[in-house]
Design brief:
It is built from 19 helices and 13 strands. Strands 3-2-1-4-5-6-7 form a 7-stranded parallel β-sheet, with helices on both faces. It has a 6-stranded parallel β-sheet with strand order 10-9-8-11-12-13, with helices on both faces. The chain folds into 2 domains: 204 residues, Rossmann fold; 206 residues, Rossmann fold, CATH 3.40.50. Helix 1 packs across helix 19, helix 4 packs parallel to helix 5 and helix 15 packs across helix 18. The chain starts with a strand and ends with a helix. The chain is 40% helix and 15% strand. By secondary structure, it is of the alpha/beta class. The model has no long low-confidence stretch (mean pLDDT 95).
Length: 415
């Protein structure tokens, strides 16, 4: 098959600095390139040509002018043009879509796989009417945007995948017309890369909790800090490491368009009710009470260096209020870490409660603290949970399994 992947317009997709979805698509494309002709369309502005690897993938660097100028201008007038309306519109990163479409003209690809941006599908169909289009969802936009608009866009999708059963079920319930062509497609993990972290952890004192991800309100870092204060009162030597970009998602990406009241309540971290600068609020909170001197902000960690970060931890926490999948849970489990997460999105599909870790409701700081202490307080318990977690990853969440699953779905529709 001739397969093209289209990166999101803001994705860093080329090594060594890939964001999460850039990394996911790269790993999938790299494995499929061993058996198929694979092209990867990426935004030139975030992916300079000197970083293009020689790995059997045909990389196409496209321009997105004037998207940055137009979207930046509209962002200055949120009262006149709400950002939620911009994101939902067909104009959102439209220039990038048209630049990719110019290279799709003529239908030289059997499949084009698009991440999240359903508004690209009509643009691509017009120029390549015989090419099949796959839409891969890693967020809840298809159930958060106007139903009529989404329905019209989905007419052009030959296949829809969700990064978890949770996402796929939401799409099927909201749009029954895609029921037979909507499937779960789990993320994967480089199990070999993370395998060495467990031996490196041997003999360490169980005192470090790790969070990996964007430091944004929907990730629940405020809950984690509250829970860690309770942990530190019981275990003064405990510490918390926060690894990830210190940047909050724009309010209208998740918080402003969510139907979940717990997620919408996070507006308090944008509108001044709690704060207007979440990063400053986190750092200030981390210096209060029992937390003082116990929290480290590690910043962005390149993918190749993440195993060493996991190796220095004893338990991985993900207290998110909104999570389509939960990639860091898979990475942590792959290194033999027990995981403590929330019963949100796709995370219950990853964590087997009492077997590989624990699940709590989002915002439950006391419950989260109790689960962290259960892991930190018993080496035997922690090791049992971690070993079971690694076995689960090897069974369900490898990149090879993901690529094969996508390959099978594409082939089935093509028959």
């Amino acid at each position: 098959m001739r397969i093209a992947f289209v990166a999101q317009p803001f994705d860093e997709a080329l090594p060594p600095r890939r964001n999460s979805l850039g990394h996911l698509t790269y790993q999938t494309a790299r494995r499929l390139a061993a058996r198929h002709e694979v092209t990867y369309f990426v935004n030139r502005r975030h992916n300079p040509r000197e970083r293009v690897p020689q790995d059997g993938i045909d990389y196409r660097l496209v321009d997105d002018w004037p998207d940055p100028q137009v979207l930046g201008f509209l962002a200055k007038y949120p009262n006149r043009v709400p950002q939620a309306a911009v994101i939902r519109s067909g104009l959102y990163h439209g220039a990038y879509a048209r630049a990719v479409a110019r290279q799709l003209r003529g239908g030289r690809y059997d499949w084009v796989n698009v991440l999240n941006f359903a508004n690209f599908l009509p643009v691509f169909r017009r120029v390549a009417p015989r090419t099949r289009l796959a839409l891969e969802m890693h967020c809840e936009w298809l159930t958060q945007f106007p139903a009529g608009t989404v329905r019209r866009r989905l007419l052009y999708a030959d296949l829809v995948t969700g990064t978890s059963g949770y996402i796929a079920d939401l799409v099927r319930q909201a749009h029954p017309q895609v029921d037979g062509r909507c499937h779960a497609l789990y993320n994967g993990c480089e199990t070999d890369l993370f395998a060495d972290a467990a031996p490196a952890r041997a003999g360490r004192r169980p005192a470090t909790v790790l969070f990996v991800g964007r430091l944004s309100p929907e990730k629940g870092l405020h809950t984690l800090l509250e829970a860690m204060e309770l942990v530190c009162r019981e275990m003064p030597e405990a510490r918390l490491d926060l690894a990830g970009p210190p940047s909050s998602l724009p309010r209208d990406y998740i918080v402003g368009i969510s139907a979940d009241p717990r997620v919408r309540a996070l507006a308090a971290f944008y509108d001044g009710t709690a704060c207007t600068d979440y990063q400053a609020w986190l750092r200030g909170r981390a210096e209060q009470g029992a937390l003082a001197g116990r929290v480290r902000f590690l910043g962005v960690i390149p993918q190749a260096e993440l195993p060493a970060v996991y190796a220095q931890a004893d338990v991985l926490a993900n207290p998110s209020f909104s999570e389509s999948f939960g990639m860091t849970l898979v990475e942590g489990m792959s290194t033999g870490l027990p995981v403590v997460a929330t019963r949100v999105g796709g995370m219950p599909e990853i964590v087997a409660p009492g077997v590989t870790g624990f699940l709590r409701e989002p915002g439950d700081a006391q419950g989260l603290a109790a689960d962290l202490l259960a892991c930190l307080g018993s080496t035997a318990r922690r090791d049992d949970l971690g070993a079971a977690g690694r076995r689960r990853v090897l069974e369900m969440f490898t990149w090879e399994a993901r690529a094969s699953r996508l390959e099978g779905l594409l082939a089935a529709v093509g028959d």
